[in-house]
Specification:
Number of domains: 5
Helix content: 10-25%
Radius of gyration: 34 Å
CATH architecture of the largest domain: Alpha/alpha barrel
Structural class: alpha+beta
Low-confidence stretches: 359-373, 464-472, 754-783
CATH class of the largest domain: Mainly Alpha
Shape: globular
Distance between the termini: 47 Å
InterPro entries: A-macroglobulin_rcpt-bd, A-macroglobulin_rcpt-bd_sf, A2M/Complement_sys, A2M_TED, Alpha-macroglob_thiol-ester_cl, Alpha-macroglobulin_TED, Ig-like_fold, Ig_E-set
Strand content: 25-35%
Keywords: Disulfide bond, Protease inhibitor, Serine protease inhibitor
Protein name: Alpha-2-macroglobulin-like protein
Organism: Plakobranchus ocellatus
GO molecular function, one term: serine-type endopeptidase inhibitor activity
Largest sheet: 7 strands, antiparallel
CATH topology of the largest domain: Glycosyltransferase
Length: 908
């Protein structure tokens, strides 16, 4: 129901004057509240009583469908027509689908139906999506000129009136989403052609979800790249805590400063960035404590974090020239930082630091063997924030902090980790770039650099990265290593600007498809460094660059060209990659610079897998009957266990659980409330449920040695019962170590349906036995209820999923002449096969269903029955979720092979 407010001023001079107002109804059902006020010399001010007027359309269409689904699922779509009149009308209901759907029961010219006054008409459709994206669905009801049977009370005055609704279903491929980006920065100042070749590969065979691979090539005439065009999508990870909120705030500052410094800032861009910064500022204040400190989850944390507070102080100081920042609040936060300073001059850690590497070298202080308090990196970080906020470098506290930091620098010069060293070097440069300590720290940083012809970078160990050219996935560096290179780039711009370009080139290759990086902190630091580099090398010379990309595969080749003109160098140009895998040959002609990146996306089958190094935790998920009422078929309880594998506990920072819902299911509000109440014991800091995506995000402060075990109750929308939903998955990742990820799939069976009753021997009319089975094919009205009967020797392509969704896979001798026509020999579904079942049973199917494999003609035969219902007593019930097929050795072997990879339910 919509509410609209109108202010209308009318001057009436005559006592009996009337006025008629005509207004457009803003929605299908609208409530109008009318109040009249008048003033005259004799009576003064008077106000009438409120008059309520409801307006509505004669008919309204509503559509109910899943918001998110998986390719290949059979989705129910319920469309309802509501007649708001008192009389009957004849309505033709049509539904328009995207071409990427297959519709199972949508005739091209449906017959109109009669809907009487105050009544509803509901039509159920089924659609199977074959492509991904936000696919549109449109339902329309139109009143037609016709009569209703046995009804004289029909209204023809509304003939031609129609109403339509638009909905979208977000469709994804099954499995785990994967992506990688290849990026390279081309610069040709003298017009000399530059070329490069790269092979974009995909996983082979069963490691790739069919048809899921797609990609695009993007070109932009600036090293800041896609970040200039997609600030809101820089990080693909969920961003739900205080530190992660800062990315939307800081990235706008950096881009605004960069465009302003290079003379390319447009007024509309400035306004958009300023508005985003104002929103980000207000959000950041939600995570502030009374003492001026900030923490990742605000008052949910016992105290503020000095690391996050220094990050916020530095960001607010940069934003002051663009938006209003409360000076008293900023001073209170700065005061908190000074209160955290020790007598030695270094700063002590307070509060929770969500990434251990931000504390300095995997939480191991200055040296890998010296497990000291990480004061070096933290002190450098706080000092840079204070100097950014305008602290006087002659302030005794600043001097004392610099002295403590450099004392540690010289005392541990042989065991400095590169992360701490990069921070200390930059802090010294900001304090006094001409000091011996700044030069000493820079020399040590340069010694630890890994270099090749095109790149300079740093790693947490001393192993050189594998070559990125012509390799399989072009792996990106962890967040900590991106930060190292970013801090180092800002130092090199001061001491060795000629080598800075090689660091910038390496950073460009670590980006995601939106121009960001793995997580939030590395994205902010890297954008800061790249914007400084881009400003230093920005050329106002004319740019006239042409980029030619040739796609070559085994079957075809094609060419696309991009033109980067001077007046449009910040425009992001994109072209789809026609086929994958493929070889890209990139060549340039003309003068100027351009960033070229190829983004590849694909899905891997949803099986348990580990990406990158062995994870420090395990994940298990079990599907159980509803804990409060096991008889409720539309409820389930998910039991989730997360446990650290580490023998020697070392915190690795914030963890994130992403639980994707099975189509048609969602977490119950009661369950989420209970989970929030148990947050302190489990270390849960935040819950976010994305209804549009069907994804639950759970943030943990860390994963320890003690197992985190909790339950999530889910409920199925009874109007959206997907018959055979695809598997869903849960994944656990360390937020700042995104290369370490564990995935576990799970399934939920759809069991709410009308069940065939067992036979009543006294009445003998409820079940259909073999000796009186109808020898007719399923009629149109019953085909959707019948089991799938495969009379050929071919194994269906969906056999694997059917086995995984089944409760039993029976090898059966059918067509027997005995009283009970089926003999169950084996159940192939369990991991351990039980031979010699020797069960003689009846079978029962919905009326009108028939499978010739059960016929006694031709004698007994071996068949395989895949069913979601195990034999009960003397009866085996078969319905639309069952498959009957010929038994072969190949089919039996495939059933056994399939069950070994199936997720297991009802076990713990």
């Amino acid at each position: 129901m919509a509410f609209q407010h109108l202010n209308i001023s009318v001057l009436l001079f005559s006592p009996k004057t009337e006025i008629v107002l005509t207004e457009k109804v803003p929605d299908t059902i609208t409530t109008w509240s009318a109040t009249a006020m008048c003033v005259n010399q004799r009576s003064g001010f008077r106000m009438s009583e409120v008059a309520i007027l409801k307006t509505y359309q004669p008919l309204v269409v509503s559509a109910h469908m899943p918001r998110a689904a998986v390719v290949g699922e059979r989705l129910p779509v319920t469309v309802t027509v509501h007649n708001k009149l008192h009389k009957c009308i004849k309505v033709r209901l049509t539904i328009e689908w995207n071409a990427n759907f297959t519709i199972h029961n949508n005739p091209p010219n449906p017959d109109p139906v009669c809907v009487c006054g105050g009544e509803n008409y509901t039509k159920n459709y089924y659609a199977t999506p074959h492509f991904v994206g936000s696919l549109p669905v449109e339902a329309k009801a139109t009143v037609v000129a016709s009569t209703c049977k046995k009804s004289r009370d029909i209204d023809l005055s509304y003939t031609g009136i129609s109403h339509k609704v638009h909905r979208k279903i977000r469709v994804k491929y099954p499995g785990a989403e994967q992506s990688y980006t290849y990026a390279s920065y081309f610069c040709s100042e003298d017009g000399k052609p530059i070329s490069e070749e790269v092979y974009l590969q995909l996983p082979k065979g069963k490691e790739l979800v069919r048809n899921s691979a797609h990609g695009q090539v993007q070109v932009i005439g600036d090293i800041m790249g896609a970040a200039l065009n997609s600030l809101e999508y820089l990080v693909r990870m969920p961003t739900g805590c205080g530190e992660q909120n800062m990315i939307g705030f800081v990235s706008n500052i950096l881009v605004l400063n960069y465009l302003n410094d290079t003379g390319n800032l447009q007024e509309n861009t400035r306004q958009a960035a300023v508005n985003n910064m104002k929103i980000g500022y207000q959000r950041a204040l939600q995570y502030r404590h009374q003492d001026g400190s900030f923490s990742a989850f605000g008052n949910k944390d016992p105290k503020g974090s000095i690391w996050l507070t220094s990050f916020v102080v530095k960001s607010f100081a940069k934003a002051q020239k663009h938006i209003f920042i409360d000076e008293m609040d900023l001073k209170r936060s700065i005061h908190f930082l000074f209160l955290s300073q020790l007598e030695t001059g270094c700063f002590r850690e307070t509060g929770k630091v969500l990434s251990s590497y931000m504390m300095g070298g995997l939480g191991q202080g200055w040296g890998q063997k010296n497990r000291r308090s990480p004061q070096g990196a933290l002190t450098a970080h706080v000092l840079m924030a204070l100097m950014e906020a305008g602290a006087d470098t002659n302030d005794p506290s600043i001097k004392l902090g610099i002295q403590c930091m450099n004392r540690e620098l010289h005392d541990h010069k042989s065991s400095l980790d590169p992360y701490t060293l990069a921070l200390v070097t930059l802090a010294n440069i900001k304090y006094n770039s001409t000091s011996p300590d700044a030069q000493f720290a820079f020399n040590k940083l340069n010694e630890k650099a890994l270099k090749d012809d095109k790149h300079i970078y740093w790693t947490r160990g001393h192993k050189r990265q594998p070559p990125t050219a012509n390799t399989k996935f072009y792996p990106t560096a962890p967040s900590a290593e991106v930060e190292m290179a970013s801090y180092a780039l800002m130092s090199y711009l001061q001491f060795s600007p000629n080598q800075a370009e090689k660091i910038a080139m390496w950073l460009s290759r670590q980006r995601n498809s939106f121009g960001g990086f793995a997580s939030t902190q590395d994205t902010v630091v890297a954008l800061d460094a790249l914007s400084q580099f881009a400003t230093s090398v920005y050329s106002r010379d004319p740019t006239e660059l042409k980029v030619k990309v040739t796609f070559t595969s085994a079957a075809t080749w094609s060419i696309v060209e991009f033109y980067v003109p001077e007046d449009d160098r910040f425009k992001l140009q994109s072209k789809p990659i026609p086929v994958l895998p493929t070889t890209l040959h990139i060549s340039t002609s003309g003068t100027g610079c351009a960033l070229v990146q190829a983004n590849v996306h694909y899905n891997k089958p949803a099986k348990e897998y580990v990406k990158g190094e062995k994870p420090n935790f395990t994940l298990k998920i079990f599907t159980r009957k509803y804990r409060f009422d096991p008889k409720k078929c539309d409820y389930r309880t998910l039991i989730i266990k997360i446990k650290s594998r580490r023998v020697h506990f070392v915190s690795k920072g914030m963890g994130l659980l992403t639980l994707r819902m099975v189509t048609g299911w969602s977490p119950t509000p009661r369950s989420l409330t209970a989970l929030k109440s148990s947050s302190p014991a489990l270390g849960i800091k935040r819950l976010d449920y994305e209804e549009e995506e069907g994804v639950l995000h759970v943030y943990f402060d860390e994963f320890g040695r003690k197992a985190k075990r909790f339950k999530v109750d889910v409920v199925q929308d009874q109007n959206l019962r997907v018959p055979k939903p695809k598997l869903a998955d849960a994944r656990v990742v360390e937020y700042y170590e995104t290369g370490v990820i564990t995935v576990q799939r799970y399934r939920i069976k759809t069991t709410c349906r009308s069940k065939t009753k067992k036979p009543d021997r006294k009445k003998g009319n409820t079940a259909t036995k073999a000796n009186n089975q109808q020898t007719l094919s399923a009629s149109a009205g019953t085909s959707s209820k019948c089991p799938e009967c495969i009379t050929s020797w071919k194994i269906p392509p969906h056999f694997h999923d059917e086995v995984c969704n089944a409760s039993a896979v029976y090898r059966v001798k059918a067509g027997r002449k005995g009283r009970r026509p089926l003999r169950l020999r084996k159940d192939l579904r369990p991991r351990k096969i039980v031979d010699g079942l020797r069960l003689f049973v009846f079978y029962q199917m919905p009326p009108g269903c028939y499978c010739p494999l059960f016929s006694r003609t031709g004698g007994p035969r071996e068949v395989i029955i895949v069913t979601t219902k195990k034999v009960s007593g003397k009866y085996l019930t078969l319905d639309r979720n069952s498959i009957i097929m010929k038994a072969t050795r190949k089919a039996s072997n495939k059933a056994r092979a399939a069950q070994k990879t199936c997720p297991h339910e009802e076990k713990e």
